[in-house]
Amino acid sequence: GNGKSISYSVKFVGTDLYSSYGLFEEVSGTIKNLRITSSSAMLTGPGKDMNVGLICGVLLSGGVITDCHVTGDINSTVDPGEGAGSDAGLIAGQSLGKIKYSSGTGNVVGVGYAGGLVGQLNDRWGHFSSGTTNGVIIGCSFVGSVTALKPSGRSNFNNDLGNFAGGICGLVYNGGANPEISLSYANATVVSDGGRAYGLAH
């Protein structure tokens, strides 16, 4: 990014299973020194298991985001009925890589896993990895609000499918891996519709 700033507003209509949306769809390399300001992304559609973030939909294993700062809003209203909805976060919908010394300021709304910076850390369902991954968030912060909505077809909380909201990350999945969130904080209003809400992460 070389310290450059980008501002954009976009509406994505998702129809494909496991699809990802953002400035970049999936990132496996390094993004550094990037500013995204006053931006917004909306994700709608009938699909399931989608990912949306202002930098990328998915940060893949081996990918790195460092010294990047994002201000804006994510509004993911993908309604999967009874299934899993979306992973939504200001930086990335889902991360299997490393996010370091970065920040987000704004509002995140998602159906499923919603986090201030990342919707889901690691890969609970194995969609983007064939082995163990170790997602890392270090030296990061979020200021704003996070809301996880309940899919219309689900009457009760389902521990496998979410409604998790977190100030940094909606869901941190262990699964034999060693994910890490350290030296990070959130100053956020965190709300879950019939699910679970956490100051940092579940």
Number of strands: 22
Helix content: under 10%
Number of distinct helices: 0
Counting copies of identical and different chains, the oligomeric state is single chain
Mean pLDDT: 86
* Largest sheet geometry: 12 strands, parallel
Query: Could you tell me the radius of gyration in angstroms?
Result: 15 Å
Distance between the termini: 31 Å
The fraction of residues assigned to DSSP E strands is over 45%
What class would the helix/strand composition place it in? mainly beta
Order of helices and strands: EEEEEEEEEEEEEEEEEEEEEE
Low-pLDDT runs of 5+ residues are: none
Specify the overall morphology. globular
Give an overview in words.
- Helix content is 0%, strand content 52%.
- The strands form three sheets. Strands 1, 2, 3, 6, 7, 10, 11, 14, 17, 18, 21 and 22 form a twelve-stranded parallel β-sheet that branches. Strands 4-8-12-15-19 form a five-stranded parallel β-sheet, with no helix packed on it. A five-stranded parallel β-sheet has the order 5-9-13-16-20, with no helix packed on it.
- It contains no helices and 22 strands.
- The protein is an all-beta fold and 202 residues long.
